[in-house]
Amino acid sequence: MKTGKPIIIALLAIAGLFFASLSATAAGIVPPLPGINAPDTQPKGCVDCHIKTASRDFRLTVVLASIKGGHPDVDKLVKNVPMDCLKCHYASQMAPVLGSMVHRNHYQNQKDNDFLINDRGSCLSCHTVDTQSGKIGIKNAPANW
Question: Model-level pTM?
Answer without folding.
Answer: 0.73
